[in-house]
């Protein structure tokens, strides 16, 4: 068997933590998304917990954020209170700036990478095709690194990746815009703040464009822990909504640009709460 064939069967040794945004950061229950029975800081504690070293090295990537320094400082304080070790800050405002900086040593020694929220298209347009992203993917496949993302940082982990489609326009065919994400998960579309911002319809549009793709909508203060590339466990105070289109029998997705409202028949929807598991089905060969 040649190397290319062997690569299609690789099981990632790394772990992904995909967060729906607005995760608890102060240890006090947020009445908007949590009840008194929930566990504040659960998700960020999980990020530290799944890193296999106590004195871990963490890099916080704030490139998606328009308030990079404030965002980094917020996460730095939290992670410093939860673990010993170093906490670094990675931020780029342009692709040119990123290409001029050699981050190989930091990426190769980090135990955890955390992508903060903001604008997911900024992440992909700056890091797509870069040695930074390639090194990170290699580490995810071959080593037990933990890669986390919240809000836009979570959406950018998938392909396809939604980058536009407002609540007002999501019902119109063709008004949801997608791009290639960072591809830690393929044939998977991740959307965040899912229930709070009413994003189910825009996810359904994405699935209708290619029913091979599975939609994963994650509510605030909720996350998925992904092991071995396809085994998911829900944690946090909200729900995860899985949308499968394998059984779609009819849709008007081809009527884009006409102002028609989207219609789709026979979507399959699953609602998963904390402790539930989901295994991504393999309907096409995995690839890196």
Secondary structure layout:
Elements lengths: L2 H5 L7 E5 L22 H9 L7 E4 L6 H15 L4 E4 L4 H5 L4 H6 L2 E4 L4 H8 L3 H12 L3 E5 L1 H4 L2 E2 L1 E4 L12 E3 L5 E2 L1 E5 L7 H10 L4 E5 L3 E6 L3 E6 L3 E5 L5 E2 L12 E2 L2 E5 L4 E3 L9
Parallel strand pairs: 1-5, 2-3, 2-4, 4-5, 6-9, 10-11
Antiparallel strand pairs: 1-12, 7-8, 11-14, 12-13, 13-18, 14-17, 15-16
Number of helices: 9
**Beta-strand proportion:** 25-35%
The main β sheet shows up as: 8 strands, mixed
Helix content: 25-40%
Architecture, according to CATH? 3-Layer(aba) Sandwich
**Would you report the number of β strands?**
18
Can you say what the CATH homologous superfamily is?
Class I glutamine amidotransferase (GATase) domain
Q: Give the strand order, joined by hyphens, for the main sheet.
A: 3-2-4-5-1-12-13-18
CATH topology: Rossmann fold
The helix/strand series, from N terminus to C terminus, equals HEHEHEHHEHHEHEEEEEHEEEEEEEE
Mean pLDDT: 92
For the record, give the distance between the C-alpha atoms at the N and C termini, rounded to a whole number: 17 Å
């Amino acid at each position: 068997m040649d190397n290319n064939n062997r690569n299609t069967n690789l099981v990632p040794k790394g772990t992904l933590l995909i967060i729906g945004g607005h995760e608890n950061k102060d240890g006090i229950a947020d009445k908007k998304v949590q009840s008194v029975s929930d566990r504040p800081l659960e998700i960020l504690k999980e990020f530290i917990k799944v890193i296999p070293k106590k004195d871990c090295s963490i890099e916080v990537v704030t490139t998606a954020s328009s308030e990079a320094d404030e965002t980094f400082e917020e996460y730095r304080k939290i992670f410093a209170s939860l673990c010993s070790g170093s906490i670094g800050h990675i931020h780029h405002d342009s692709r040119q700036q990123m290409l001029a900086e050699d981050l190989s040593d930091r990426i190769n020694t980090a135990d955890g990478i955390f992508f903060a929220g903001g604008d997911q298209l900024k992440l992909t347009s700056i890091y797509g095709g870069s040695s930074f992203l390639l090194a990170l993917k290699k580490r995810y496949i071959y080593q037990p690194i933990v890669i986390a993302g919240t809000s836009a940082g979570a959406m950018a982990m998938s392909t396809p990746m939604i980058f536009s489609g407002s609540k007002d326009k999501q019902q119109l065919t063709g008004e949801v815009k997608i791009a290639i994400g960072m591809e830690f998960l393929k044939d998977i579309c991740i959307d965040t703040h899912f229930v709070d911002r009413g994003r189910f319809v825009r996810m359904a549009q994405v699935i209708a464009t290619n029913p091979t793709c599975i939609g994963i909508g994650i509510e605030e203060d909720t996350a998925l822990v992904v092991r071995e590339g396809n085994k998911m466990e829900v944690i946090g105070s909200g729900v995860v909504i899985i949308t499968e289109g394998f059984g779609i029998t009819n849709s008007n997705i081809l009527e884009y640009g006409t102002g028609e409202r989207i219609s789709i028949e026979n979507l399959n929807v699953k609602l998963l709460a904390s402790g539930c598991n989901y295994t991504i089905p393999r309907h096409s060969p995995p690839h890196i």
